[in-house]
Amino acid sequence: MIRARLLVLLAAFFALAAPAAAQKRIALSFDDVPRTPGAFMTPQQRTDRLIAALRRARVRQVAFFVNPGNLQQPWGAGREGQIAAYVRAGHVIGNHSFSHPHLSEIGATAFVANIDQAAMWLNGRPGYRPWFRFPFLDEASRDIPTRDAVRAALRERHLQNGYVTADSMDWLLDQLIGQAHAAGQTIDMNALRDLYVRIVVESAEFSDRLARDALHREPVQVILMHETDIEALFVADAVAALRAHGWRIVPIDEAYRDPIASAEPDSPFLSSRIGALATTAGLPPRDVTPVVNRMDVVTQAFNTEVLHQPAPAPAAPAP
Ligand SMILES: [Zn+2]
Hints:
By secondary structure, the protein is an alpha/beta fold. It contains 11 helices and 8 strands. About 45% of the residues lie in helices and about 10% in strands. Strands 1, 2, 3, 4, 5, 6, 7 and 8 form an 8-stranded parallel sheet that branches. Helix 4 (about 105-120) runs parallel beside helix 5 and helix 7 (about 190-215) packs parallel to helix 10. Bound molecules: zinc ion (ZN). The site of zinc ion has 5 residues, from strand 1. Zinc ion binds near residues 32, 96 and 100.
């Protein structure tokens, strides 16, 4: 009896003394809505499947970043209903500019006007959040006057930077699929799913390690995805794999309440908020991007694993 009590006490002690369990949390975000049609389904099918997949995977709230200018394109006309359907399903929408320009190319004045044009469409819509996602994640990180002019404009408009901390590279996979499809090549869909899921998990794991090493805490991660056929087909697989690796999928509202949301890092690397903060903590920019976010690495993996092309021969040894 006494021994049993002692064991209970010991167990309680060790439970208290154990370090806090890892808190890996991540939210999902989808850009370029409504996006160009993909290779496998119509935009309406894509929206229906994506909403159903998120519901089945019990992902309560993600963000869709909208380019209202796409609604004026031939392939985007009449798709307001798909955006409304995301909101009815419990998700939220943010500003991704009107026509998706590169800040570094058009400069602050035209860029801010483009944001305002998108805001005219977005303001007052159900599900709208005052978040701005930079197209191409281009914040003009090496042009400080431009960077700071846009930061000031966002503050004036009470718009928060809708940053990301991890990249699914779906935009590149989608491009590679389009090329393979147009060339009549066979796409191994199981291998495509596995590659996509691997990039999502490794990208999130890398960013979590980086945050623990450089920031000594675990901010809520935000992963960059797009409204593509890949997500409609495989987002539930990616979510299941993240959970298997100990991740909790949280609402995007929770992600953007994290303390890192108010940071304005002074860094030449702004494509990932955690990466940017890690560089200000002293890490070189080359060390804050995972290998699975390199275009050459993803392209080669796609060619060998998904298209089953022979791997390129290793470089010949120097004479
Ligand atoms: Zn975009």
